[in-house]
Specification:
17 strands; binds zinc ion; 9-stranded mixed beta sheet; hydrolase; metal-binding; binds N-(aminocarbonyl)-beta-alanine; alpha/beta; EC 3.5.2.2
Amino acid sequence: AEFDLVIRNGTIGTASAVFESDIGVKDGRIAALAKGLGAGAQEVDASGRLVLPGGVDTHTHIEEPRGGPTKNADTFASGSASAAAGGTTTVISFARQGRGESLAEQVALHHERGKRSRIDYSFHMIITDPTPQMITEELPALVEAGHRSLKIFLTYEGARITDAEALRVLAAGRKLGALVCIHAEHHEMIQFYTEALLAAGLTLPKHHAWSKPMVVERECTHRVCAMAEALDVPIQVFHVSGAESAEEIERAQKRGLKVWAETCPQYLVLTADDLDRPGFEGAKFIFSPAGRTRADQDALWDAIRRGVIGNVSSDHAPTRYAGADGKLAFGVDAPFTKVPNGIPGLATRMPILFSEGVAKGRIDLQTFVAITATNPARLFGLDPRKGTIAIGADADVAIWNPEKRVTITNSLLLHDNDHTPYEGLQVTGWPETTFVRGTAIVRDGQLLAPPGHGQFLPRAPYALIAPRGVFPAPFNPVDRVAL
Ligand code: URP
Ligand code: ZN
Ligand code: ZN
Ligand code: ZN
């Protein structure tokens, strides 16, 4: 046969066009795009189906160690299965340096975990202890080895760094050519609120949202944009949750800054009211920043349509509800401060965005492809291999039935978590088959590929994240500091 695989008669969707074509795959790459292609050793009929680039999910906590009594519910084997079940073919997860730890050691450990991935993967490096020694002695080689993005937290006890440290990491990102991604919430305000809430006995899941109202995120979003401006460093702000934070992003972009922003499905379909469910069900909706309002959801869709927010990731961060003894893993009726932040979202990201976005007419198909695959691949230096359907690109595609109606239930998601906050949500449109480099990983909910099919994706230097060369003073402060 001329090709290893031919996907016939599909409607192809990319970030710029929708057209009818066959796809010919050879050696894991797209070798031909035309109608009436020659024979494939394997033939798939995609009549009446959409054939879309596999999703690129650039914010996923998979098999990430954490302190305390709970752990991340997914391994790379299960997390990558879940991603593929939802049409995603590439993930960027986090290699996390704890305080006093070597970043290089943590990256090496994460490489070991990644070997069981079924889909392709890359790493962001979480820096919680940016000592001058780590920055000068460990970081350059790690970036050079292809880990071209850094994450910092400005809140969370045990993870957050100070503004002075953040400036040092930003400077390092600029010098080494790595994109700095930031969790932006004002830590001391959250702490002040939290102490007051606990003192008042207000400890329910819904009080999680009270402890971190939008102002803590709006202020910090403004602050990190200003820090990025001061040192002329491109950044991505993680999980923008609503209108006021999106306004800060847009303001920075209008100033000409290279500030990119991400949001997540939870901010588009859930609200703070979900925390107020009966019993302890609200605990399944504790994530940070907290869910907001319907008006915030509308503002986020608008920001997506106007290109202010170009990346929609899952922020997959699963914790089991039930512990090994059948009781709540984090304690019955635990105060909100004891519930690990984060929800699972790898499998549901694309179906929810397709249904709420494309099927409901909020965004077109090209925009859906852009925010789930093409933009994140470009932003993190994974293009042209990932994020689009083009000759020479990896044959990472998902065949979608745009009409299929599915009621989301946990067992469909192929993750190792015991619940989803989207249980019972009805969606229209579902990925029926997901291919990574021409190999089917999931078909009709059946997992076909073994752990280990995935490949690590080192990222080469790329122009998109080059600094502008513009400082607010007639002086470059970054090149003066030792690195
Ligand atoms: O609540 C969340 N988002 N948990 C995951 C860690 C983070 O902040 O991204
Ligand atoms: Zn490495
Ligand atoms: Zn975060
Ligand atoms: Zn996260």
